[in-house]
Structure formats: C-alpha cells, structure tokens
C-alpha cells in the first residue's frame, strides 16, 4: 500500500511557538483559513506524494548521507505570502531564508528523489512553512510584516503525511541528524 510522504526539517519548540503566536495574530485578519496546528510546523525540502514503502526505503541511505554531509545551519523565518502568486490564494505561508548548507541539502534531497525514481520537481524550490490553507475561494489578503528570527535546523526527516478531515497529520518514517558525518 502506498504511503503519502515528503522530506522535511522539523522546527524547534521555540520557533514553533513564535509561529503559533503569529498565526494567532492573523486569525481575525485572514478569514476562511484552515490553520496548521503548531506541532505540524516544518520546512518541506521535497514533497514525494504517494510512494511505495520500497521506494521510500531506497531513499533512506542517500538522505542519511546528505544529512550527515550538511552542517547544522540556521534559517531566518520572515515574510508572509500566498500561493499561487496570482489569482485566488490557496496557501498562506511564512517565508524561510536558508543558509547555503541547507540549500545544498535541499538540492541533495531532490537528487536523491530523482535517483529513487520520483519525477523531477517542476516548480522552483521556495522555502516556507505552511501556516494554513483556504477552504474555498478567497480574496488575496493584506498581510502584515513578520520577522520571527533565526533558528538552527538539526535534523532531516522522511515524513509520512496522512490526510484527515482536520488537516494533515505527520509522523516520522526515518530521522537523520544533520552534520554527523563519521
């Protein structure tokens, strides 16, 4: 049976709390959004979609190697925006500026996914944390400035994503520490 999966980096409790406070301040300003719960805040490096357990298992070695070769590095979380860029918004996000080491890690995740038989991601990588999704058609909101500061990202995770009526639930399939090359 296929598993819906992605490769991402979890955020520490302090950054999740800062993001949750930002979301709380947006809830009255931005109507019609199904908000992401704070335990689900993460940085996606590569969405994989429905995948066989065998294909996911074949990713573990390359992901472990990529994580080990990357040094722990910081990311600044700042700026609010929406996807898509034009038309009715569907996703509200918080931007992330990644250190060069983390951009290299993202590229390594893309290469590993392609080597495992996943198609090339056609969209340009845009580092962000999803804050919420609109349930229906909405007007583009006016968003306040946001700068939540920097946090260090310390692990790479192969996540399972289960879609539920309350939103997606994520659980780790495999976790790889960043910067632990032996």
Topology:
Elements: E1 3-10, H1 13-26, E2 33-35, E3 42-51, H2 53-69, E4 73-83, E5 91-98, H3 100-115, E6 128-134, E7 147-153, E8 155-164, E9 167-177
Antiparallel strand pairs: 1-3, 1-8, 2-6, 4-5, 4-7, 5-6, 8-9
Helix pairs in contact: 2-3
Structure, explained:
- This protein has a five-stranded antiparallel beta sheet with strand order 2-6-5-4-7.
- Helix 2 runs antiparallel to helix 3.
- The chain is 26% helix and 41% strand.
- It has a single domain, classed as Cyclic phosphodiesterase (Cyclic Phosphodiesterase, Chain: A), CATH 3.90.1140.
- It contains three helices and nine strands.
The tally of beta strands, per DSSP, is 9
Cα separation of the termini: 35 Å
Largest sheet: 5 strands, antiparallel
CATH topology name: Cyclic Phosphodiesterase, Chain: A
Number of helices: 3
Number of domains: 1
Q: Would you tell me the structural class of the helices and strands? A: alpha+beta
What percent strand?
Answer: 35-45%
Order of helices and strands: EHEEHEEHEEEE
What spatial order of strands do you see in the largest sheet? Answer: 2-6-5-4-7
CATH architecture: Alpha-Beta Complex
User: Mean pLDDT, as a whole number?
Assistant: 94
- Tell me the name of the CATH class: Alpha Beta
Task: Choose one word for the global shape.
Answer: globular
CATH homologous superfamily label: Cyclic phosphodiesterase
What proportion of the residues is helical, as a percent range?
Answer: 25-40%
The value of Rg in angstroms is: 16 Å
> Can you tell me the residue ranges where pLDDT is under 50 for at least 5 consecutive residues?
none
């Amino acid at each position: 049976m296929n598993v819906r999966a992605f490769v991402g980096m979890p955020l520490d409790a302090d950054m999740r709390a800062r993001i949750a406070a930002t979301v709380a301040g947006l809830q009255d300003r931005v109507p019609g959004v199904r908000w992401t719960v704070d335990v689900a805040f993460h940085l996606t490096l590569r969405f994989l979609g429905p995948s066989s357990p065998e294909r996911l298992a074949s990713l573990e070695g390359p992901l472990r190697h990529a994580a080990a070769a990357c040094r722990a590095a910081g990311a600044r979380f700042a700026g609010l925006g929406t996807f898509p860029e034009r038309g009715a918004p569907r996703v509200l996000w918080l931007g992330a500026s990644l250190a060069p080491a983390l951009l290299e890690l993202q590229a390594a995740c893309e290469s590993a996914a392609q080597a495992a038989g996943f198609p090339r991601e056609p969209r340009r990588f845009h580092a962000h944390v999803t804050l919420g999704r609109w349930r229906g058609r909405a007007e583009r909101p006016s968003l306040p400035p946001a700068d939540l500061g920097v946090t260090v990202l310390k692990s790479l995770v192969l996540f399972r994503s289960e879609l539920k009526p309350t939103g997606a639930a994520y659980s780790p399939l495999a976790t790889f520490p960043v910067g632990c090359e032996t």
